[in-house]
Every structure is written in structure tokens, then in C-alpha cells.
Amino acid sequence: MPIIFICSVPFGGGERLARSLADKLGYAYLSREDVVARANDCGIPVGKLEVAMVKKPAWRERLGRLKERYLAVATSTICEKAAAGNLVYYGRSGHFLLPGVTHVLRVRVIPEPSQRLDTVVQRTKLSRERAVGFLDEIDADIRAWVQFVHGAQMDDLHRYDFVVNLENISIENAAVALCGIADLPDFRPTPASRRAMDERLLQARARIKLALDERTADGDLTVRSNDGVVTITYMPSQASLAPVIPEILRDLPGCRELRCTVATTNVLWIQEEFRADAETLAQVNELARRWGAAVELLRYRPDEPEEAPCAPVPQAPVPAAKLAADGGVEDDVVEIVAASDRAFHDTLDTLVQAGRSGGGHAVAGSRERLLSAINPAIQYSLVLVGDVYLKKGSAARTRMTRELTQFLAEHARAPVIPAADLGAKLRFGPAQVAKLATTVVLTAALYALVFTHQDLLLDVLGGPFHNLHPWGAVLLVAVLAPLAAGLNAGVTSSVLRLLKLD
Fold it and tell me: DSSP label at 239?
């Protein structure tokens, strides 16, 4: 059965609908107030965060950290409650917390306006005129909060599975209808969806532990997980956190392996299939080494349904000594892994060994789905779009890849380039040698021309010619200055690339 999210504005009947639905289905009930209470217990002042957001301050680092901690607590609370049994959650935007989890039923409740106004007047004792202004302010603040926390529009109906308009149906009948909808096969848990929820819970628990420990509370840490492997990326200036992180996360439930990596920046590499022996990987590794960057892998499968499972991590073979000690009986059954999945994790392991892994995950479906899988909290320095749409023909693949690159460039807050262009930007081959030689020759010729015609140039700039034709000096400077600057820049950039200092 699904996790049912009831989203509504205050005084709109959404809470009553959620409670009625939970009673009819026999589900546990959880509200935003419960999440806020737990967040406050964890030292996250949600009220102060809301006030700061409403006042629209300039973005501050502390606000970003508080937001991430709140999201971690909210995700953990919902996942833990849902893991214990079926769940109905009432709040503003809880469904945004579980991307990739498909066994969720997202319901938007639209209140009946006059009944909502009557409720506010009765509870607050305000006049109807003042109550209208009160509701307008609340609604505006809530929309701003959802935009701030989730980077999404609360009123975007594409984010919901069903919309219940209480102007046309009673709360009791709406609850009855939703009971039938919740039983549909479309919203039942699948192994892939359960794994996705487990990963969300694991990430959230790791974030909470790191946030609550005073040694890492102010650290700039990126948390990723994939099939129980948690990757923590920290900045070089916070290298002292490296030995502390494993100590803090030693008893993290669900974590079978912990990896810590250092990064000064992040590069996101999007591709449909990864290979550890690919030339592009060597180029990406070289770029990461130059920049001191962590590389995050995002395996994008556009031709598969959105609920397609993420690639499992291949299990390492059991040593012969252990098999002998156990009498030849393994503790767990070794999972059979597809070649493409193994290649994905081999690529990730290559980055781990190089100390450049920023984690890896997978997403399937539309390009909007791909965009939603890109963490907006991470400041990427570069997004690489590799080989995608592999099932298409050559011409269609080229066109669709170009369109995807343009789409990401318009929506991602980072430069986006095709991975195929990376080699040309890094490699110093014959073409680059020819370019360097040409610019050096042209630069030398320009300076030789200037020094061998100094008298003429001085005449144009301030001599008799200048007195008769003052515009000549302007024209000379307008031509020579950009030309010299461009040639110098070409020589410098080529030399820096040759020395791998770009």
C-alpha cells in the first residue's frame, strides 16, 4: 500500500481529510507538526527559519545548512514512520522529500473558499475583511516556504496524482474515494521503490548524525548513498573531519560501507552506460585532478520507465579462507549483477581509488525526471553530458543529446558541455601545437612590425600626422590593442594547457 501525502493550506479541510482517510484505512497518521516537533528536538529552530525566509534575507550559509538539516529530519521521520507500516501524511509539501519513491499517492486538496473563511473567522475572531487578508498572507508565506525549501511551486498540479476540490465533494466522500484509489496496483510498493526509500532514509540519518555532532555541525559535507554505500565528500580546508566522520557514522543503521572523499568542487557526469576502461573516464579523472574536484556519476536511462531500479552494487567475492572457515557456506547469497551495472560500479570504484568519487546514483525516465535528480544544494562547477539515448539511431541520438544538453544548460546552475568536447579542451595534440605555433608567429610578427615602425606610430599617436588627423590615433589603438591582447591570450592559454595549469 502507498504512502499517502495530503497537501493543503491551513484551515482548508486537508487535515480532517487526512485523519478521516487514516481512520478508514487503518493507517498511521503523521502531520507536519510532528516533523517540526522532532526538528526542534534536534536543535533546528524551524520557526526562526520560517521567519527568516519570509523576511527574504540575502542568502546566508547558515540558512542553507538549517534547511538541509530540516529536510533530513523530515525525510527520516516520514521514512521511519512508513517503514513501520502504512502511512497518511498531512502537510504542505511532504511528497517532494521522496523523489524516486513510486509507491506514494500525492493528493492536493483545494478548500471551499467560503467555508475556509468561516473557519478562520470562528477560530481567530477576526472580521471577515481582516480574515481575508490573513489568509492571503498565510498562503503567500507557505508558497514562499515551499519554493525556498524544495525549489518547487506548491500550486504546480503536475506534482500531484489527484486533486480533490472540496467545493464539489464532502470530506467523507473524498476519503471514501481515496480509499479505493490507494488500493490501485499503480501505487503499490515495488522492490525498486522500497530500495529508493531505504536510500533516502539512509542519507537522511547520516545527515542528521553529522549535523548533531558539534565536530561536523558546520562542515560542508555532501552525503550520497547507493545500495548501502554512503559517500561523504568534504572540502580540503576541512580535512580534519576525515578521521571524525567514520567515528560519527560507525553505527549508522543500513550502512554497509562508508567512503570519505575530499573535493574542492564537484563535477557531475551524466551518461547512460559507464565503462571503467573508457577514454572519457581518464579525461574526467584528469580534469578532477587538476581542479581538485569530486566527480559524481549520474546514470541516466531515458528509454526505461521511471520506476526502473538503480544499479545494485556488485558484491565482492568471498575469500577462500573465509569459505573454508565457514565450512563452505556463505552468509549471504551473492547477487548476480548485469554487466552494465557492474561497469557502472567499476567506474565508481576507479574514482574512489583516485580519491575523486562524489558518489553515484541512477535515474530513468524523462529529462524532467533527470533534472529533479540533480541536487540543487550542490554547487557544480561543470556538468558533462556523455553518451545517452543509445537505443536511438545515430542522427536521432546526436539531435536528442544536443537538446538534452541545451535543456540542462537552461535549468542547471552550472556550465553544461558534451563529454565528447572534454578531450579537445584537455588534450594538447597536433591541433593545439599548430595553434600555439601560429599564435606565437603572429605575435612575434606584430611586435616586430611595431618596433620596426616606431617613428611612424609615434607620428600617428602624437606627431604632425596626429595634429592633422587626430582620428588616426583612435583607429590605430582600436585595431592594435585588441589584436595584441587576443594574440597574447592565445599564447598564454596554450602554454598553460601544455603545462596542465589551466
Answer: G
Q: Which residues contact 345 (CB under 8 A, 6 or more apart)?
A: 311, 313, 314, 337, 360
Q: How far apart are CA 174 and CA 24, in angstroms?
A: 12
DSSP secondary-structure letter at 330?
-
Question: How open is the CA angle 150-156-161, to the nearest 5 degrees?
Answer: 100
The pLDDT assigned to 62 comes to 64
Please indicate, yes or no, whether residues 416 and 448 belong to a single structural domain of this protein: no
pLDDT of residue 389: 92
Q: Following DSSP, what letter does each residue of 403-445 receive, concatenated? A: HHHHHHHHHSSS-EEEGGGHHHHH---HHHHHHHHHHHHHHHH
- CA 252 vs CA 74, 359, 376: distances in Å: 18, 18, 25
Contact indicator for 494, 439 with CB cutoff of 8 Å: yes
pLDDT (tens digit, 9 = 90+) per residue, 343-374? 887 888 788 767 677 778 888 888 888 888 88
What does the DSSP 8-state code read for residue 454? H
- The answer on 422 and 442 residing in a single domain is no
Contact present, 364 and 302 (Cβ < 8 Å): yes
Residue 297: name the closest of 243, 237, 340, 254 by CA: 340
135 pLDDT more than 50: yes
Residue listed under C-alpha cell 525498486: 192
Among residues 187, 196, 376, the alpha carbon closest in space to that of 204 is found at: 196
Assess if residue 255 is contained within a domain. no
- Pick the last residue of a domain from 427, 448, 483: 427
pTM above 0.70, yes or no: no
Pick the range with the lowest mean pLDDT from 15-24, 120-129, 313-322, 382-391: 313-322
**DSSP helix, strand, coil percent of the chain (3-state; round to 5):** 55, 15, 30
Tell me how far apart the alpha carbons of residues 329 and 323 are, in angstroms, rounded to a whole number: 6
The answer on 157 and 128 residing in a single domain is yes
- Does residue 218 sit within a domain? no
Average pLDDT, the chain: 82
- Lowest-pLDDT range, 22-31, 52-61, 207-216, 217-226? 52-61
Domain count, the chain: 3
The three grid cell numbers given for residue 265, joined into one nine-digit string: 568542487
